[in-house]
Amino acid sequence: MHRPRPRTVAAGALVLLLAAAPFIPRGSGDHGAISPSGEQPTFAPREAAAVGYGAVTPAMRQEIDRAVAATTSLPRQHGRITARAASTLTQCADLEGQTYCLGEGWTQDDQASVQARVATEVAPPAARRTAQRQKKLRQTGDLSPKAALARLAKMSPKARAKAERAELTQAARSVAKVWMIRNEIQGTPLPAGFLAAHPEARVTVGAGRVAATTPSATPSKLPTVKPSTTLAAVATSAAPTAVASTSVAASVPTTYPVKAKILKNKQTAEQVRTYWCGPTSMQMIAWGWKQKDKGAAHWAAKLGTTSAGTAISDMVRVTNHNTGWDTLAGPYVTLDVKSFTTAQFWALLQKHIAQYKAPIILHPQLLTRYFPYLDHSGSGHFQVGRGYRTTKTTHTQEIGYYEPWNQQRFHPSEPYISRVQWLPVDRELSAVKANAFHNIGV
């Protein structure tokens, strides 16, 4: 009986290996790849958790320069800010097809729409001003659009340009993360050439082995993360065609548990000043990462918090620069969720908690119609998203979060509010949309 020679067996195995290689997902980067000779590498998108910080291209730099230059014509202002000044300060940049607006974050609105909205916030119609006075909302700590713009207007043009450039540069380095969220959660097709242009957003298939990586033990601003075990979408070539997700959460595994939560309940705190929801939320976020409590005052200084409150852009900045959560979730971004459905918000929550194991910076309006534990409605507010579950009896989808606000501390006659809270997810999303910013940090 004729037996195949060892060389023949080895050659056959090599042929099978090379044939299967394009379907094997890789870890981060292209180093160590064994690609078929003479073939171009084939790319597949990573999930958003694996998207690192990207480079700022010359085109991005030009767009940043344009946006910053548009505000330098406005001299330093004191006192009440006008609608015209608010519009001038609210500049948006088109960064590779995604729109980022200063102070607002990533949005699907155009600049004119955003400017019109902020102009109304700083100079509302008479009927709205009367309604606002009648509401008597308690200030709990987020920086309102009006206060945020007043802060910018008080800066010298030079100082303002420096702050705006830093904010836009951070945004530009995170654009791939935003594209992947849009693709995975909202089903937006990736643009042609996206994966070839963004190595931080792709895995290379066509390799004979997988170069796996794990999150670094210490915080890094160029994070390494666990590679996906499945392709987030159909593998594309170096000049890919757009591929839409097949559902609102195409990349969410069906094996996600019915409930999941992160962080420790003993690592919580309540705000000790009425306007410290931002520093206290940041205290809990950092405590969960560092396993050490530095107190809210420490984070108030990092965030630049004043009696007017804390900006969500500063919450995102400090999370990226002073914790390592971005090594699990990719760079945190300020994301407008006005257009999100409850199903999409739930999908994003599942990914963040069960897959990334990283907290969400929630940014709701603290209104009694959404939060039943409140005695009075409040202003824009920050909370720490840290869990989800589906109840057994009513099958209600709920979000778990840490609530820094305890009304009893400031109003002893009112009921105590616990730090650990659960709320139907549609209520939380509605509360976020009720905020003038309608955005979160993810």
Outline the structure in words.
38% of the residues lie in helices and 11% in strands. Strands 6, 8, 9, 10 and 11 form a five-stranded antiparallel sheet that branches. A three-stranded antiparallel sheet has the order 2-3-4. The chain has helices at residues 6-20, 58-72, 83-89, 111-122, 126-135, 145-154, 157-172, 175-186, 194-197, 277-290, 296-303, 312-322, 326-329, 342-356, 407-410, 425-434; strands at 42-45, 92-95, 98-101, 105-107, 202-205, 260-261, 334-336, 360-362, 383-390, 397-402, 420-424, 439-441. A hairpin with a 6-residue loop joins strand 9 (383-390) and strand 10 (397-402). It has 442 residues and is of the alpha+beta class. The chain has 16 helices and twelve strands. Among the domains are: 58-172, no CATH class; 260-441, Cysteine proteinases (Cathepsin B, Chain A, Alpha-Beta Complex).
Write a concise synopsis of the structure shown.
The protein has 442 residues and is an alpha+beta fold. Among the domains are: 58-172, no CATH class; 260-441, Cysteine proteinases (Cathepsin B, Chain A).
